[in-house]
Amino acid sequence: MQIFFLFSSVFLLSLTTGDIHKKLVNNYSANMVTQINTESPDIKVIKITLLAREENTPPIGEVSQPNRDIGFASVFIRLVNLKESDSKITIQNIKIVSIDDGKSQNFSFSPQELVLRPLENAEHVFHLKNKTGYLGKDAVKAIVTYKVGNLDGEIRSDFIQLTRP
Fold first, then answer.
1. pLDDT by residue for the chain (165 residues), tens digit each?
2. Looking at the structure, do residues 59 and 82 belong to the same domain, yes or no?
3. Residue 127: partners with Cβ closer than 8 Å, 6 or more residues away
4. Rounded to the nearest 5°, which phi and psi values hold at 149?
5. Are residues 51 and 89 in the same domain?
6. What are phi and psi of 31, to 5 degrees?
7. Are 73 and 52 in contact (CB under 8 A)?
8. Do 77 and 143 fall within a single domain?
9. Rounded distance, CA 37 to CA 31, Å?
10. Handedness of CA 83, 87, 92, 93 (dihedral sign)
11. Main-chain phi, psi angles of 61, to 5 degrees
12. Rounded distance, CA 87 to CA 148, Å?
């Protein structure tokens, strides 16, 4: 009787552990699919810094030209590749907005793809310029939208005071 009870317990235990094993395998597969779909970015955008200036008067010694650039913005983007292989990031747009009304300044930017080498720490700078200068008050910030794989992201700089000589 004890042998039968022991045998039936082992038999039932093997049946349930088989089901548990199947559930674990199926759950693991489902988790793996979920991980692939919600994968974290290969590149981390650490921060952006903005330098902005407006030069209404031409440099000393230069003849004044009516169609010269007046507004300048330099946007520094700090990036880190988290993988041990090349990774791509597309900078989709860079906007410069004013503090008073949040409206975009008159700068244009074309999307650019950057390739980072394995585990690379990099800082890229984008120089923007316009012929109209800045509208509004003296504080502006940069808004950078980017894409890594299938994930879209946005990062903003702090507001900075506009340099006007």
1. 444 444 444 444 444 444 433 333 333 322 222 222 224 568 999 999 999 999 988 888 888 888 889 999 999 999 999 999 999 999 999 999 998 888 899 999 999 999 999 999 999 999 999 999 998 777 999 999 999 988 999 999 999 998 887
2. yes
3. 72, 73, 74
4. 65, -125
5. yes
6. -65, -40
7. yes
8. yes
9. 10
10. positive
11. 90, -10
12. 8
Verify that 20 and 51 share a domain, yes or no.
no
Same domain, 28 and 58: no
Structure tokens at 96: 């410069």
CA–CA separation, 86 vs 43, rounded Å? 10
Separation CA 18–CA 61 (nearest Å) = 86
Q: Are 105 and 130 in contact (CB under 8 A)?
A: yes
The whole-model pTM stands at 0.71
- 26 with 82, same domain? no
Asked whether the beta carbons of 127 and 112 are under 8 A apart, the reply is no
| pLDDT value, residue 137 | 74
The angle subtended at Cα 122 by Cα 109 and Cα 79, nearest 5°, is 70
Domain ranges, residue 18: 1-38
Distance between CA 146 and CA 91 in Å, rounded?
4
